[in-house]
Write a structure and sequence with these properties.
The protein is α/β, with parallel strands linked by helices and 267 residues long. 49% of the residues lie in helices and 10% in strands. The chain is elongated and about 65 Å long.
Length: 267
C-alpha cells in the first residue's frame, strides 16, 4: 500500500470528523489481515429463559465455597444477581461477584470471600454452548487464509473463561485473541474495545473486518473504530437500522460471510 494512503487512513480513524471522508475509501483495495467477531448470537447461540444455565453454574460455585461458613439460599442469590444485571459486562467477574455477596449482607471471612470470587469467575468454564450454523466453517476458512481471528464481546465472562467455553465447543483452537468487556470494563459500541483488540493483534483498523449481529454494538462500533463492518442479519430490524451506514455489507448466514471475506481478500 502506498505510504500516502496509509497516512490518510490513520488520520481519518483518529480524527473526530472523519465519517464523511472515510466513506470514500475503496475497501476492496485494502489488504485484510484479521477478522474480528462478536460472540453471542454470532458464533455461539445465546440461551433463552429467565436465567442462563452458566449463571446457575457460577452461583452454585459461590454457594459451594461460602457454604462452608454460612448457609446461602439460591433464590436469594439469584435475586441479588438479577438486581445487578444492568452492570453485567461492565465489571470484571470478581468485582461483580463481590457486589452480589455484599448485597446479600453476608458477614464472612475475607479469605473465603476471595475463594468465592475466584470460584465464581471460573464457575461457567464447563458450559458448552451451541454453535451458530457455519461458525466452524468461517473460522476454519479464516485461519486457512492466514488471517488473525479475534472475538470482541460484551459479556460478564473473563476472556479466560470464554476461551474454555469455546474449547468445549471445539472452536477455541481457531481463536487468536479474546477481548471481553468484563476484563477491560468497556462495552461495545465504544471504539476503545475494538482498538484494544487491534493493538493486541498489531494491525491497523483498515486491515480488519468485524462480523456481528447487532447494528449498534457491532456495526456502528466497528465502523467508528475504523474496521470494515459486516452485519450478520438475524433480525430485519437490525438491517433497517443500519442500512444507511456507508459501505455496510449484510449477510444472512455465516457461510455467506465467507464469501464476503473471500471477496475482500481477492479483490
Amino acid at each position: 500500500m502506498p505510504q500516502g494512503i496509509s497516512y490518510i487512513l490513520r488520520y481519518l480513524v483518529i480524527n473526530s470528523d472523519f465519517t464523511k471522508r472515510f466513506t470514500k475509501i475503496n475497501w476492496c483495495s485494502i489488504l485484510i489481515k484479521a477478522i474480528t467477531l462478536d460472540l453471542w448470537d454470532t458464533i455461539i447461540q445465546s440461551e433463552q429463559g429467565p436465567i442462563e444455565p452458566y449463571v446457575i453454574m457460577e452461583l452454585e460455585s459461590i454457594i459451594k465455597t461460602i457454604g462452608r461458613a454460612i448457609k446461602v439460599d439460591m433464590d436469594e442469590l439469584i435475586k441479588a444477581y438479577n438486581s445487578l444485571a444492568e452492570y453485567r459486562g461492565v465489571f470484571n467477574p470478581r468485582v461483580y461477584a463481590k457486589l452480589i455477596i455484599a448485597l446479600l449482607g453476608l458477614d464472612i471471612n475475607a479469605n473465603i470471600v476471595e475463594e468465592a470470587l475466584i470460584a465464581y469467575e471460573n464457575g461457567g468454564s464447563q458450559y458448552k454452548p451451541r454453535l451458530i450454523d457455519g461458525a466452524r466453517e468461517l473460522l476454519q476458512y479464516a485461519k486457512g487464509m492466514g488471517l488473525k481471528v479475534a472475538v470482541i464481546t460484551n459479556t460478564h465472562f473473563s476472556s479466560g473463561t470464554i476461551y474454555k467455553i469455546l474449547m468445549n465447543s471445539g472452536i477455541g483452537e481457531y481463536i487468536d485473541l479474546i477481548v471481553s468487556s468484563a476484563d477491560y470494563e468497556v462495552l461495545k459500541p465504544h471504539p476503545r474495545i475494538f482498538q484494544i483488540a487491534l493493538q493486541q493483534l498489531n494491525i491497523n483498523p483498515h486491515e480488519a473486518i468485524h462480523i456481528g449481529d447487532s447494528c449498534i454494538r457491532d456495526v456502528l462500533g466497528a465502523y467508528v473504530a475504523g474496521l470494515k463492518p459486516v452485519l450478520y442479519a438475524r433480525r430485519q430490524k437490525s438491517v433497517d437500522k443500519c442500512i444507511r451506514i456507508p459501505g455496510l455489507k449484510v449477510v444472512y448466514s455465516l457461510r455467506e460471510a465467507i464469501n464476503v471475506v473471500e471477496g475482500l481478500l481477492h479483490a
